[in-house]
Design goal:
39% of the residues lie in helices and 14% in strands. It is α/β, with parallel strands linked by helices and 442 residues long. The protein folds into 2 domains: 10-148 and 307-362, Periplasmic binding protein-like II (D-Maltodextrin-Binding Protein, domain 2, 3-Layer(aba) Sandwich), CATH 3.40.190; 151-304 and 371-441, Periplasmic binding protein-like II (D-Maltodextrin-Binding Protein, domain 2, 3-Layer(aba) Sandwich). Strands 2-1-3-15-6 form a 5-stranded mixed beta sheet, sandwiched between helices. A 3-stranded antiparallel beta sheet has the order 12-7-13. Strands 9-10-17 form a 3-stranded mixed beta sheet, covered by helices on one side. The longest helix has 18 residues, at 418-435.
Length: 442
């Protein structure tokens, strides 16, 4: 008997259940405002001291919507709980801290299409452009954008200066610096064997993506010029033994290693700075914030910026109000100001807004950069201005990423080359999509 293929369009995230469920802008809430305040239940594993003040401020300033924070144990626990309630149709929250990529979650039938409620805010210009793609699947919104963290680099300037090495402006210069540092027993970067984010970020910075859509077909290309350019940087770092492979699994050992002066260049984001400030002992004050190195042939300064969003689950009774609450929390001055933590003297990073400059100083630690503290602000704002999100997440990316982790471990231990890994991932991804009866070329 001939095999029957389901033709499911990329625009509806290639999942039959989503197509059958329709796009609707919600599962209810058409006249809730007329009946009085509605409650938007918000699931998150963030500490109460971080999210509750924001909810309290919202509730004190809004008459028709109330945010109720429901604490979750952790990321996996939230995912399991949401799948259970969506399947039962009972007790479905209206906002959930994101625990995965939007297309995959849409593919599971977990999320509601809230495009009609999000788009007016986009049209009003409340968001920066780079914060939008990660909240979408097939060009539709299934979540509320909350933005990205700006990417830059911190270097142990004391060690760089000790050996007379210039601050690298490009990845080629970083590799050159690594070769000189190697003579002194110093690694230029760390590539943990379980974390392929360096490769993913380099592909994004080069302007590439492993997936794209054309009509109702997914196009897969792990061997694009952008991907190979990114892979070349990684390959040269590995081939020349310029990087350490300290695991993230042993956090204290990792921090001690970073603090030791034996690894001196760290691509990072704003949220990680307080951890360095809290834990570094030997190198406190030795670090300098610098621009993320660029590709030598880059036409413009670019920082990868794939962000995240607040999920709006299928079965939420008040999707319009959920979107309004989510937008307020992540884009208004009152919402951002309410996130201020007195103990850390920081705000939650406002990654969705066009101009985060009023809040930048709060994320810069007092002692980490020593006399170079003032350099952090322009570096961070340059990363914001240069942020681009070209990354398209395919419907099987969760499984592909797991396969990528396996391949990455072999790359950093020199068992295979980056090119071999990319060739394997190309075949793996295409075969997997075909096995799911999804239209694919590659």
């Amino acid at each position: 008997m001939p095999r029957t293929h389901l033709r499911v369009t990329a625009a509806t995230t290639v999942v039959l259940s989503v197509v059958l469920a329709g796009c609707g802008g919600g599962s209810g809430g058409d006249d809730t405002a007329a009946k009085g305040p509605v409650t938007v239940e918000y699931w998150t594993w963030d500490e109460a001291k971080v999210v509750q003040p924001v909810a309290d401020t919202f509730n004190a300033t809004h008459d028709n919507i109330r945010i109720k924070v429901v604490k979750q144990a952790d990321n996996p626990g939230t995912a399991a709980n949401l799948r259970n309630v969506v399947a039962s149709g009972k007790g479905v929250p209206c906002l959930v801290k994101n625990f995965g990529e939007i297309p995959g979650l849409v593919g599971e039938g977990l999320l509601d299409d809230v495009t009609d409620f999000v788009r007016p805010y986009v049209d009003k210009g409340v968001y920066n452009d780079a914060s939008l793609p990660s909240a979408q699947a097939g060009g539709r919104y299934y979540s509320v954008p909350i933005g990205y963290q700006p990417s830059f680099m911190v270097i142990n300037r004391k060690v760089y200066d000790e050996y007379g090495i210039a601050v690298p402006r490009t990845w080629d210069e970083l590799i050159t610096a690594g070769k000189e540092l190697k003579k002194h027993g110093v690694q230029v970067m760390n590539l943990a064997g379980e974390d392929p984010s360096t490769l993913v970020n380099l592909v994004q910075q080069a302007g590439g993506s492993w997936y794209r859509t054309e009509g109702d077909t997914w196009k897969v290309d792990f061997l694009s010029p952008e991907s190979l350019k990114a892979g070349d940087v990684v390959q040269r770092l590995v081939d020349n033994d310029l990087v350490a492979n300290q695991t993230y699994m042993d956090r204290p050992a990792l921090i001690n290693y970073f603090d030791s002066g034996r690894m001196v260049s760290l691509p990072t984001q704003a949220w990680q700075l307080p951890t360095y400030e809290l834990n570094y002992k030997k190198s406190m004050g030795d670090w300098q914030p610098v621009d993320l190195p660029q590709f030598t042939d880059a036409l413009r300064f670019t920082a990868p910026a794939h962000g995240t969003a607040l999920l709006v689950p299928k079965g939420c009774a008040h999707p319009e109000e959920a979107v309004a609450a989510g937008v307020w929390m992540s884009t208004t001055k009152a919402g951002i100001d309410a996130s201020y933590q007195k103990d850390t003297k920081q705000y939650s990073w406002p990654g969705a807004v066009k101009d985060p400059s009023p809040w930048v100083d709060s994320v810069v630690p007092d002692k980490l950069f020593g006399e170079r503290k003032s350099e952090a602000r322009p570096v961070i704002l340059k990363a914001v201005k240069g942020a681009r999100d070209t990354w398209v997440v395919g419907p099987n990316y969760t499984g592909v990423f797991t396969e990528l982790q396996d391949q990455w471990a072999k790359i950093v231990t020199k068992k295979i080359t980056v090119r071999q890994a990319l060739e394997h991932l190309q075949k793996f991804t295409v075969d997997d999509l075909k096995s799911k009866n999804i239209n694919v070329e590659g």
